[in-house]
Specification:
Elements lengths: L1 H11 L8 E12 L9 E17 L4 E6 L7 E4 L13 H13 L6 E7 L9 H16 L6 H16 L6 H8 L4 E6 L5 E5 L5 E7 L7 H20 L13 H7 L6 H25 L3 H17 L6 H11 L4 E7 L6 E7 L3 H16 L4 E5 L6 E2 L6
Parallel strand pairs: 3-5
Antiparallel strand pairs: 1-2, 1-12, 2-5, 2-6, 3-4, 6-7, 8-10, 8-11, 9-10
């Protein structure tokens, strides 16, 4: 792969081949802990072995020329004096925002020729935006001879999403892309940013990601709506528990004591999801440390049901996949992952029934929705890094 993408870089940026460097940032999947991150709760993501490759070479004229294999008809060029958001730009705002934030951080980026090659499916909810943001921040800082910490880069790329792109994301995606480790999941407290790498030993099982292939038109508006509902719930709970800062601080026992203060049934169910999901993430960390995949799989199913019934972010397509997948013998856990209203499910499937799993799920899903799913059998990989062996 590395030699191929270096050749592609040289095709689009011919000339002196000295100083070419290659970087990689993974996509991520959240195993459990959905819509808890912006509520100051716990999440449990893992980095994948698919992601974004970046081949880059420094320039000294303050200009950036970028080409993405995913958007071959839309190359991007700008200077360090032209770091403005453009609404009609399909992808260039992400690296542009990263350059702006690196300069604010004092990293002396002087320009670059950059080629991106990604194998994360677009719109699948596997965080292609955090992947391109992190690989750009990591790569450009290394080209400048600087090494900001992984936590600094995660916060930097979150600022790009929040302030430059205008999407109110939490920190989970950037953290998972930055701190991922092969065969480990990441237990992250989104309130304190304390984290723990937890071994995830799959043994005879594999992770299967299934894309609904449904356009996620509702995701952004409903995401903001859910945030607002959670904020309403927090304010009502504060009338009884004044010291609480986030819903993530509430234990189930504490929630039972204050739940009657939430006057709206919809808001009550939103808060109940956050509190119970937080508890499921805590339990997931404990059972995986014991290697108990079966119990972890049951927690995944409970997570989906809560997202369906209390948070109402699944939708017909994700629910159809969920029902089809949990009915397959050899699938011990499955749930939606990501914002919802489309995107993907993540399942733990015994490796010798994966073919049967795909056939059975595809048949049921197509009959239920008229759509054809796409399957990805994935492994858990490392976080953002430079591919030393590919350095030219």
């Amino acid at each position: 792969m590395e030699n191929e993408i270096i050749e592609r870089f040289q095709h689009y940026f011919p000339g002196n081949n000295e100083g070419i460097r290659v970087f990689f940032a993974p996509g991520r999947v959240n195993l459990i802990g959905e819509h808890t991150d912006y509520n100051g709760g716990f999440v449990f993501p893992a980095a994948l072995t698919i992601g974004t490759y970046m081949v880059a070479k420094s320039r000294d004229d303050g200009k950036f020329h970028l080409f993405s294999e995913s958007f071959p008809d839309d190359p991007v060029s700008f200077s360090s004096e032209e770091l403005h958001f453009q609404g009609d730009d399909p992808w260039g705002n992400y690296p542009k925002g990263v350059v702006q934030e690196l300069l604010k951080l004092g990293v002396k980026v002087t320009g670059a020729d950059v080629y991106y090659h990604g194998n994360i499916p677009n719109g699948a909810g596997l965080s292609s935006s955090a992947s391109i943001g992190m690989v750009t921040a990591f790569g450009l800082s290394r080209l400048a001879g600087e090494q900001p910490s992984t936590k600094q880069l995660a916060k930097l790329t979150q600022r790009v999403e929040n302030n430059f792109i205008g999407v109110s994301t939490g920190i989970m995606d950037q953290f998972a892309v930055g701190f991922g480790k092969k065969d480990h999941a990441l237990f992250l407290d989104c309130s304190t940013l304390e984290y723990e790498k937890v071994p995830l030993e799959l043994g005879d099982y594999r992770l299967v990601i299934t894309n609904t292939n449904k356009r996620r038109g509702l995701a952004d508006s409903k995401y903001n709506e859910r945030r607002s509902e959670c904020e309403q719930g927090l304010e009502q709970i504060r009338e009884m528990k004044k010291d609480i800062q986030t819903l993530g601080e509430l234990s189930i026992d504490e929630f039972r004591k204050v739940k009657d203060n939430i006057g709206n049934d919809v808001v009550f169910r939103r808060v109940r999801h956050v509190v119970t999901e937080n508890e499921r993430v805590n339990l997931a960390r404990k059972v995986l440390k014991k290697g108990d995949l079966a119990v972890f799989g049951e927690l995944m199913k409970q997570s989906h049901e809560s997202l369906r019934d209390d948070y109402e972010v699944t939708g017909h397509e994700l629910d159809a996949l969920f029902e089809a997948q949990k009915a397959v013998k050899g699938c011990i856990g499955t749930r939606m992952t990501g914002a919802g209203f489309g995107g993907c499910t993540i399942s733990i499937v015994k490796k010798d029934v994966i073919s049967e799993f795909k056939e059975q799920v595809q048949e049921v899903y197509e009959k239920e929705t008229g759509l054809s799913p796409t399957f990805y059998t994935c492994e858990i990989g490392d976080g953002v890094k430079e591919l030393e062996e590919a350095t030219v």
